[in-house]
């Protein structure tokens, strides 16, 4: 698989016990989380640990997250320890409609990436440290999350990373993941503009209808939404549809050719959907950045269709247990699941 460089937040999910509202919950379990972190760990479990640029506070929760990433095989090279408290994401009770999050802690420590610290050497292959690509002739795939755009330094660092990826010829995927609770008062237009710019400069965009509507980019849904996104610049748009699976639309500029495909997902007994979208992204990205990306010119939709199947299988397996990162399956489990369902 092509090397992947992931950038974004790592935080702690507080997962509640049973209860209709947070006031009725008796206790919480702390679990590692953060969309980019979940994707990075998902890629590692699917067989290819990526380089991961993230920031961890210098508190006990930061220690917990650092130990977790290390245990998952994520190189420590770009895992920064910074002063400040780790951000906590309090997950709504199981009775709520879909996983919702309330964020607490230091935004600076988790989302305040330093624009001057963008690890450009990892993108060019000049870095000697662990986690850099082994072959400078094959630039790594860069994957970014949208939450960092809610912080001024996070926005600036994202711009620098996108610029470096473009200059070095790295394919870029961007998960919109718009979180209105993290947008400071009076900054909605600024953050929306930053999201639009990131979409424009990316090759592949992951999103839901809700993400795009909340960011103010489009009010369309499904295939029309994907086409609206392609008009902004990406060659592939992937729209998640919850229990209905996902769809993808690509243009002629995509390595896998122009296609419009949909996969209805897999019926499983769901326990917790926290992190299912990140599991999907990791599964699909493992295909697009790997086998599918090595066979340019496919124009019959097979590459995208197979990638959607892997993404949906990874997500389906992840919802059968509680937690985001901890529920992501291995490559062996995904392959066995797909063989069984076929």
UniProtKB/TrEMBL annotation:
GO biological process, one term: fructose metabolic process
Keyword set, alphabetical order: ATP-binding, Kinase, Nucleotide-binding, Transferase
InterPro entries according to UniProt: Carboh/pur_kinase_PfkB_CS (IPR002173), PfkB_Carbo_kinase (IPR050306), PfkB_dom (IPR011611), Ribo/fructo_kinase (IPR002139), Ribokinase-like (IPR029056)
Keyword Lyase: no
Domain Carbohydrate kinase PfkB: 1-330
Molecular function per GO: ATP binding; fructokinase activity
Superkingdom of source: Archaea
Annotated protein name in UniProt: PfkB domain protein
Source organism of this protein record: Halorubrum californiense DSM 19288
